[in-house]
Amino acid sequence: MAAPLVYLSFPGTAREALGFYRDTFGGDLTLHTYEEFGRTDGPPDAVAHGVLDGAVALGGSDAPDGGTAVRLEGVLLSLLGTAGPAVLHRWFDALADGGSVTDPLARKPWGATDGQVTDRHGLHWLIGYEPEE
User: Fold this and answer.
1) 73: confidence class by pLDDT, cuts 50, 70, 90
2) What is the predicted pLDDT for the residue at 114?
3) Is-contact 88 105, C-beta < 8 A?
């Protein structure tokens, strides 16, 4: 792995959340259950380990019984310049579906286009790109 992987503990929604991110960003999703890993600190069908590998990579699992699920404050997942404008707009719209737009994806006074959205699973995204030359 060339960079840190954001790895999230979900409150029993890892399968749904990681599936949502696969549908949004594309890529390959691998999921393993608590049962497969021999874990007994949660339901057998809970996700013990999941990884989305693609243009956007994320990892995650269901928090164990009594464990803490993700609560992000002051953290933005940046997708600045990670794809072309059309793809970034499509990602922004998909993340906004069921989420909330903090700052619309639009051209800003400094010339770049960017925006912020918090998706339905509570992740805050910064998406944008520089003007095409």
Assistant:
1) confident
2) 96
3) yes
Which pLDDT does position 98 carry in this prediction?
Answer: 97
Q: How far apart are CA 40 and CA 30, in angstroms?
A: 20
Q: Report the Cα–Cα distance between both ends of the chain, in Å, rounded.
A: 32
Fill in the amino acid letter for 72. L
**At a CB cut-off of 8 Å and minimum separation 6, what does 117 contact?**
92, 95, 96, 99, 100, 101, 102, 105, 124, 125, 127
Helix (H) or strand (E) holding 43: none
Yes or no: say if 115 and 96 are a contact pair by the CB < 8 Å rule: no
**How many residues make up the chain in this entry?**
133
Specify whether the CB–CB gap between 47 and 33 falls below 8 A.
yes
- The partner residues of 125 in beta bridges, in order of sequence, read 77, 117
Q: What distance in Å separates the CA atoms of residue 92 and residue 105, rounded to the nearest whole number? A: 7
| Contact present, 125 and 25 (Cβ < 8 Å) | no
Domains delineated in the chain: 6-62 (3.30.720.100), 77-129 (3.10.180.10)
**CA 35, CA 49: separation in Å to the nearest integer?**
11
